[in-house]
Amino acid sequence: MTTGSRPRQFLSEINVIPLVDVVLVLLVIFMVTAPMLHRGLDIKLPTSVANNIKAEERLIVTIQKDHSLSLANDPISLIDLRTKLQEARSSNPLVSVYLRADQTVPYGTVVQIMDEVKGAKIERLGMVTGPKIETIKADNIGAAP
């Protein structure tokens, strides 16, 4: 060894470029083949003249901010609501009623409409709500999840 020359050092780092190439190729292969895996079964269904399945009849009762009522987008009074619901039930005993109410409508008004629906002997009553939107509070900013 001469003075001024250093001893030879080995490079101990892993070369990740070939690894990234392989991963990208595998990703493309999986992206192409994944939709082909979700196939249904190929069967031929028998046909029938009589269709026994009836579409579910749904009525939507809407209570607006000003406490006005609508039945299937048609304005209606509270007095006429029960008779219309009874007519709908007589034509289809399995009719469903969905109640949409503005969030500012008092709870008592909503319960009164629910009583009218139950008074018309309709057992299927649902409440329509909107999706919940997450709000960020000032005290949660910077907090760990």
Report on this structure.
- The structure is a single chain.
- Helix 2 (78-91) packs parallel to helix 3 (107-119).
- This protein has a domain at 58-127: Nucleotidyltransferase, domain 5, CATH 3.30.420.270.
- Strand 1 and strand 2 form a beta hairpin.
- It contains three helices and five strands, in the order H-E-E-E-H-E-H-E.
- By secondary structure, the chain is an alpha/beta fold.
- Strands 3-2-1-4-5 form a five-stranded mixed beta sheet.
Q: What would a concise description of this structure say?
A:
Helices cover 33% and strands 15% of the residues. By secondary structure, it is an alpha/beta fold. α2 packs parallel to α3 (107-119).
| Overall helicity | 25-40%
Summarize the biggest pleated sheet. 5 strands, mixed
What would CATH call the architecture of the domain at 58-127?
A: 2-Layer Sandwich
What is the first-to-last residue Cα distance?
59 Å
Shape: elongated
Low-confidence stretches: none
Q: Summarize the helix and strand pattern as letters.
A: HEEEHEHE
Radius of gyration: 33 Å
* Widest beta sheet: strand line-up: 3-2-1-4-5
The overall pLDDT average reads: 79
Number of strands: 5
Return the CATH class of the domain at 58-127: Alpha Beta
Range of strand content: 15-25%
Structural class: alpha/beta
- In CATH, the topology of the domain at 58-127 is named Nucleotidyltransferase, domain 5
Q: DSSP helix count?
A: 3
